[in-house]
């Protein structure tokens, strides 16, 4: 009975989907309260009288992410889940590290446009190449990826237009969901033999975020 | 140079992606003007003095869609592109027909929640089965599908919370985009051999809408 | 003292008035918690860990509504009040049944545009007639009605662009409110004798929803 | 064919219906251009280089409105239609004058909450009486009215939360629409004889705004 | 550690900053609950069953504000903080009193456009003079002021497009914040000697609201 | 007559004020058309058929800004005015360079929250010090500044939650506006002698953006 919801929850874990422009703030700040058991659209705020400077502060974005994984990339997100002061403010960040030939695989941010600034290295996206200091815009919902085509590490900073942009990594969501999507469905949808689907569903699906 | 945009445009053709709650209307009606060369966020309105009753009218949703295709399903959309009166009003419809064992393949509506009402037949979704008169909610952005598991045709009416909900059919967007996504990217992302990717990219990708 | 509010509340009972485009969702789902005593703009969500598939499911929309009333029509609403999964998602449905010559009387949905699809029968609205498979758009706030002009029952499905569209049935709100609106006010407003107003206020005002 | 639209247009003339919170401004000012033939959601702006101080200025709200009409009241509106600088800014005003025993009849503003400040006289609303300096809030969409119960003129200033709040005067919209609503519909809806409906439809319906 | 927040809080006390169009209401009314310890974007609502007419009522706006202060002006605000029924409704009011030559100093409302109606006296703003019955629009965020240039008191009513418009009084925010902004910063920013900054920071900064 | 507008325009030049959360996009992309003479809320889009990849591309953010000015800082903005693809997408960037002891003076972004990431150097803000890799959030509308307290250059990347965030530099807006604000007003507001005001108004006010 709950398996539809498991599927939902898996999609949430595999990817925080969110789907709209964040509403406006109605006060100066509304720091996310990670201790509440009251659930609303967004996050309940902690008592303003208890707000500290560090609620607006995050450190360590200069640290290189660990790209020792099958994709050779790592996304370090800074959003309402770890920088509570971002609640109600409609913006977040991510640092993306790439090992040589590392891939940030095809994915979409259902609730945010991404503006990527390349700080170091060379990245390939669609048929375009980005170099140091280049900025590229991925409109909200567009499925996109980045491939490091250089022999050196690459580093990018992404700004995203939501406190909780969400990410749907296509391959993982389709073949890695739990419970699994019926293999008849995927075989027909991807025009492959059910054995191929069963094999793909049996693989370990790397998350790089 | 324009190939990134070709990719965008293909995504648009393969799927009208749109990504947010529709803004509010600022007048009684703003019928879409399909003759304008002025482009705005949404659609420019025709002169209110020229608005006719038929701008708010669509007929033929009782007709069965043609499901003679590889998927055995057909989506008949009624949105701002063919019912101009829907412009600025934040809602649209679709009729979905299924041949026996027909599939509406995994897809997402980036800008709309879908509320599906089954008028006839039996549909499987995730691990749940819908029967005649059942209603199911697919929250905005959730990747979902419907499979007709009955020996008879199935018919559903979907209500969507945008004048232009958009649809991203996962398989088509990944393997059917033009220009093609680099097969190194897809091979690494889907953990398959490049030959498999090349094969998939060579197939004809059915659109059922 | 509280009678202004009684009037408000009556208007709410007689009609859930709501007046704007629903704000955007900030998470994948936010199932309405009908047990909370915390009131916010919209509805507080139940704990995501307790969400079940049935929170997104409603059955029985194939059942004919009971039209044995003075109006000969019945509206069966499916909105956030009985399909909790619709909370934050900006859409809802209604099935409307009509006995022969049944009337869905002049009313307005203050928070939603209605897209009506006629599944069976013939309906008259303003000076237009709808037949099976016809779709008609009632822009948000427009006062509208439907009259069954056929000898047989009629059935329509309405999609509405809010989780809680609201309905103001004109006659009931004016003459059936409790406390009653001062009859001097209504006599002057409707240009009729106070006795006519008093008579109208003494009648039983049928709600068909 | 166009009569449904005539009905729409009449409702617009009899009352500018608008139905949502105004969207946000995207620039410092966007003065309404009343000469354009381009129609959008809201109003196109005049060239910022041609904007004059007087685009933000309106004079004469100290003048008493002419209450010599059947209702004994007069609404002087200051909104985007006569104070062009209000375009995109989400607010407007009205001055309401009342002769002794004058009535501002039951109506609703589909797109705005009204905050009424009584500058002079005494007004009755529902079961409450307002005196000089009293402020009362009519939530968006609530059907409301004001009756001057004093022997002297009354004057109020209303602030409304839209550049184009709209007003639906109940009696006029129901009995004064052109083309007329079918008298079978109104007779059944109001539980009166068709002759009563025909009589009411034959009357002259005063607009006080 | 908390001093950044003190600065924030001071800015809040010195001025409730808020920065966006209020979201839409999702029910008929949501009266602010000033007793809750649950904090959300906006204000939690009191139990609808306990709502009273007086929650929508404010009296005394006919009283002259006390202008015996260094500025010779007084702002009497009517917003969600003292008229709880305004919660979720996107509008508020203020009465502004001016002694002869009184000044409402340069300030901005970060979340609201202001529409000022002059009820009595003469006011100078920028290079324009307002007389009785004149209306002027200050677009959201514009820094503005009013100076009474008449020998008599002046009175204005301001309508503001937010339930909580906020006000940032420039001089007070810059020189009166606590903790003080570093005088090196202000000396460099205002091109004055640090002694001038230290003197200004030592002064008492009048709030007229 | 036009001087109020001159003041407005100056405020626009001195600072693009904008005052709300950006509305949602209604299509995949809406690249700003910088050749149109049609003005709307936001920017009209160029013909989608003419959109090029470079409409989403900006290069050179690796270049150091010229800080040879009185403030010793330089803001390089990347927003809808120079990266047209950002239109309707609700986000923008800025690179901020600081010479040793350089100041980004007290200012506010009326339409955006700023998330600042320090790439190099040390910055002082309020009473907190940021080091390389630190991130700090300035909630929308908060007046803020950054001072380089290191002997070396500092570089930061700011992400802002609007396509056109706007900036109001306090000192410049108050003392550098043209036409000048009446010195009686400023003398009274800042509690200084008119000669001081006249002197400040005679200075050259550096813009660092």
From TrEMBL, chains A, B, C, D, E, F:
Q: InterPro entries annotated for this entry?
A: Cupin_1 (IPR006045), Germin (IPR001929), Germin_Mn-BS (IPR019780), RmlC-like_jellyroll (IPR014710), RmlC_Cupin_sf (IPR011051)
Q: Does the UniProt entry include the keyword Nucleotide-binding?
A: no
Which compartments does it reside in?
A: Secreted, Extracellular space, Apoplast
Report which superkingdom the organism of origin falls in. Eukaryota
Gene Ontology cellular component?
apoplast
Q: Identify the keywords attached in UniProt to this record, alphabetized.
A: Apoplast, Disulfide bond, Manganese, Metal-binding, Secreted, Signal
Coiled coil (UniProt feature): none
Q: Where does Mn(2+) bind?
A: 107, 109, 114, 144
Which GO MF term does the entry hold, naming one? manganese ion binding
SMART domains membership: Cupin_1
Record-annotated Cupin type-1 domain positions:
59-198
Signal peptide residues on this chain, from the entry's feature table? 1-20
Chief localization class? secreted
**Family named by the database record:** Belongs to the germin family.
The record's annotation in PANTHER family points to: GERMIN-LIKE PROTEIN SUBFAMILY 3 MEMBER 3 (PTHR31238)
Supply the name of the protein: Cupin type-1 domain-containing protein
| Protein's organism | Spirodela intermedia (Intermediate duckweed)
């Amino acid at each position: 009975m709950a398996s539809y919801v498991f599927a939902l929850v898996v999609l949430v874990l595999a990817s925080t989907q969110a789907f709209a422009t964040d509403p406006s703030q109605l006060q100066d700040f509304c720091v996310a309260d990670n201790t509440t058991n009251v659930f609303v659209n967004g996050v309940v705020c902690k008592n303003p009288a208890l707000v500290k400077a560090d609620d607006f502060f995050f450190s360590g974005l200069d640290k290189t992410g660990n790209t020792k994984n099958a994709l050779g990339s790592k996304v370090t997100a800074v959003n309402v889940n770890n920088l509570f002061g971002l609640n109600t403010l409609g913006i977040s960040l991510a640092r993306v590290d790439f090992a040589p030939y590392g891939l940030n695989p095809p994915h979409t941010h259902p609730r945010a446009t991404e503006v990527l600034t390349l700080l170091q290295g060379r990245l390939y996206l669609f048929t375009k190449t980005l170099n140091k200091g280049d900025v590229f815009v991925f409109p909200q919902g567009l499925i996109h990826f980045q491939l490091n085509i250089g022999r050196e590490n690459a580093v990018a900073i992404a700004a995203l237009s939501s406190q909780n942009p969400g990410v749907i990594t296509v391959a993982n969501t389709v073949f890695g969901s739990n419970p699994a999507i019926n293999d008849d469905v995927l075989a027909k949808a991807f025009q492959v033999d059910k054995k191929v689907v069963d094999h793909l569903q049996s693989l370990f699906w790397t998350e790089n975020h």
